[in-house]
Each structure stands twice: as C-alpha cells, then as structure tokens.
Amino acid sequence: MFDLKFIRETPDLFDRGLARRGVTGLSAAILSRDAENRGLITRLQEAQARRNAVSKEIGAAKAKGGDAQPLIDEMAALKKDIQDGEERQRQLEAELTGMLAAIPNLPADDVPDGGDESANVLVRTVGAPPQFDFTPRDHVDLGEGLGLMDFAAAARMSGARFVVTSGPLARMERALAAFMLDLHTGEFGYTEVNPPLLVRDTALFGTGQLPKFGEDLFRTTNDYWLLPTSEVALTNLVREDILEAATLPRRYTALTPCFRSEAGAAGKDTRGMVRQHQFNKVELVSITTPEESDAEQERMLNCAETVLKRLGLAYRVMKLCTGDMGFSARRTYDIEVWLPGQDTYREISSVSTCGDFQARRMKARYRPEDGKGTAYVHTLNGSGLAVGRTLVAVMENYQRADGGITVPEALRPYMGGLDAIAPRMG
Known about the structure:
Helix Hairpins
C-alpha cells in the first residue's frame, strides 16, 4: 500500500519502480483522482461554511420580517450540492483505495530486472547433489513402493492434489516439523506461535493476498478464509498497534497447515506432493525497524538455509527478478533444494522483505527511541521450511537401492532412534 503523499511528491520515482514490475502509467491516473478529491474536499468545506452562514441569515431575515425565500432557495441548492459532492467524494475515495490496493510493492534497487524466472540470479550453491549407483526414483515411486504414501485414497475422499502418508513416513514429516521449530526457537530466538487457521478479509488484505489473489484462497460460507500461509496470522499480530522500538525486532515462527486453491497452477506439478491444496509449513516472520530490515532478511535467509545444512541437503539460493517476485515483496531470495528424482532444483523456501508495504495496510507502527512521533515497521517473512517439500527432498536424497530411505542423523532423535525406513518385504 502506498502513501498518496509519496506519489504526489515523487511520481517519476513511483512510475519507474512500477515499470520494473511491468506496470506502467499509474501515477497520472491516481493523481488525477487525488487532485479531484482534494479539490472536492475544499469545495465541500466552503459549501458547508456557506450553508452555516445562510442558516444564520435566514434566521435574521425572518426576525426582521424580511423576505427569506432567496436564502431558503440557496440553502436547498447548497444542501443538494453538498449531498452530490459527498457522494462523488465517496466514489473517488473508493476508486483511489481500490487502485492503491492493487499495486504491487516497488522493488529494491538491487533486485535484478526481468520478466520471469529466467532472469533470476544465482547467489550461491551449497553442497553437491548425491551420486547414486542406481537410477534414483522420485518420491511418488518411493512412497508408494514403501506402502506409506497413498494418493488414490486421498483422491477418493478429497480429490486431486491431496495425499495420505502413514507409518514411519508420517512420523518423518512430524519429525521434520519438530526439528525445524526446535532449531528456530532454540538457536535463532524465534517465538513459537499457535495461530488461528481461519482469518477475516482484513488480515489477508493486510499482508497483500486480498483483494487481488482471492481466487487462490479457500473461503468458508460464513466469510472466513483458510490460511494460505501462517505469514498472514503472524504478521497481523502487530496490526493496528504502536510498538516500542526497544521491543524490536519481534521474531515469530509457527507450524500450520496451509491451504491454497492453486488456481493459477492448472496442469503444473500434478504428480506428487510438490504442489498441493493442503500442506504443512514452518513459517518465519520478523517485525523490525527500517534501519535493520535488510540485515534481518539476511539473518532470516541463514535460518532457513541452516535447516537444509543440518539435513545434509544440497541447495542453491536465487535472487528473484522483478517479474518473479510476490506482490508484497521488495526483495526475495528463493532457496531451491536438489531433487534427484526430478534431476533439478526446486523451490523449498522464499525469504522476502516487504519494507513498510504490509505495515501501511495493517496500520502497524512503532515509536522510535528518540520519541518523536511514530513510523511504520518493516515486515519480513520466509518459509523455514515447507515441511512436505522437505520430506520429498529427504526421501529422494536419502533413498537406497532397495527402495528404503535412510533417516538423516538430525532427525533420528525425533524418530525414536530409527535410522532407516525399510522397504516392504515380499
């Protein structure tokens, strides 16, 4: 969400930033409505002042026995002009709000320009993909071969893009989530939160999912929305609040189911667990000051990377270009993990800084230490990690020739000491 004052004072800067995201010519349309609205406010104030004066003049005229009809006629005309003006002002303000709400965040200066993922920039590659003396299978073949992953049963009860895991594979998913939460809370100082899974429109508007991306969400019949990511709940913990600078940064983490309709992903990743309507994710959210937000993003990126390092998984970090970033982000790093079954890297986390974009939508502010007024906080979010995709990565990278899966050492304390998921006999 943007401040109209910023657009008035720097329309060229505003337009240049949006042009990098493929959006052009908005400042003129916004400022035209803004100018009309501000002019209308002035005229309404003048008309109201004149109306008050005429009311007194009518009383004086009647008291002297004079002809008050011209003043009465003027009063009627003023009343209609004010009613018409107020209706037009409401229309203009609704148009301005709608336009501003649909505009994506401006990219940071260091974000590479580009129209799609082909323009993303490799930051670093960590670890080497494992070498197998057999042809590696993907997680679907592995899970079904173990009898612990059932897409058919899930489809019978829920349709496509769902899965049922069971036995030690279900336990491994739970172990991964617990391992991530313990790491983020124990070593990185995040506060664990158990938030609601149902939220109102205002919460989704605050983080930028609404109004533009409603079709990607699941909505109940009584106007709740299922969380598409716990970023929504965690970031909204500070909505309409004024925080003390000494309490920042605030770092939150949560494990929740996430629900997405995947309306824009028809035909993509239809096989397996990579893109589902329901999945578990450990989310990281930071609330901080403008001065610390860039450093906080690097810190959050390290937190997410550490999960993969501890699990011994090869990955790479990409800086997303302007055409591939999310709506609310001003800079995003994607972490992509190596999947032997697909012979490629696939996204497992996005770590974004949003500047004050979400804070303006949520009216989330802080009081600087000098005590002079208030300012908007900066918000950041990242996956720490997507649990289902991490399960996929562990299965494929730790698979054995016999179809079993070695349990990474970091997970064994969470698996009751189990060191491998053995294949079915016979």
